[in-house]
Amino acid sequence: MKPCFGKLLTIIFGFMVSFFSLPASAEQQTLRCLQSPSRVAACPNMIYRSVLDDVTQKNKMICFCKRDFDLLFNKDVTKQQAILNKMELKQITAETGLTKLQLIKMVSR
Fold first, then answer.
1. To the nearest whole percent, how much of the chain has pLDDT over 70?
2. Which of 16, 19, 26, 51 has the most CB atoms around its CB within 10 Å?
């Protein structure tokens, strides 16, 4: 009997999610994923990145929806979209406690 490839992938993915969600130490924070507050569907392109925490001076893992931040920082948009982007950016910074410059630094590499 052949094992189902899809089932194997599901098991491997489940293991990876479990493994990466476990803290390595008491100091490590849980993984934060940043995305647009207006997003209603799953993100098609999550990026996982290690960044230096300005407070602790230690690396931490973040994830973000690439498409959302490409849109938020795009300068070539309509006036209406620019206003919406500004409002969403303010909401993200308020919820995360990060500054706009910190966000830009995290998502642009």
1. 70
2. 51
